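Researcher: Good morning. I'm working through a list of sequences from a screen, and I'd like to move beyond sequence-only analysis. For each chain I'm collecting a predicted structure so we can compare shapes side by side. This is the next one on the list. No need for commentary yet; just the structure.
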Amino acid sequence: EHAFQAAKTLDILERQEIAAAPAPGKAKRMGRKVQLREDWELVKTDVMRECLKSKFSHPVLKMQLLATKDATLIEGTTWHDRCWGICTCPECKGAGENRLGKLLMELREELR
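Model: Good morning. Structure tokens for this chain:
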């Protein structure tokens, strides 16, 4: 979370502050307040892909991802995140791109 949120800005000080956040939730809240880099919408999926590759290079996490075998991975949300997940709230009714789930399945295939 820290790396992804820090990548939203090109300001080095903001990046350092997010990296030093005491918890992922705090890093996420801080990421909502940064001056977004102009190309963020174009690069955010690639940034997430690289963050996931780094995260799942850890042997334990890699094994956990591989243990999902061929399961469809879904980032289920109730907070209207229809980009990274699928929102199951009554308003969204299961709408969403599930980019996070798709990236995880893509990475799982690469790791095999």
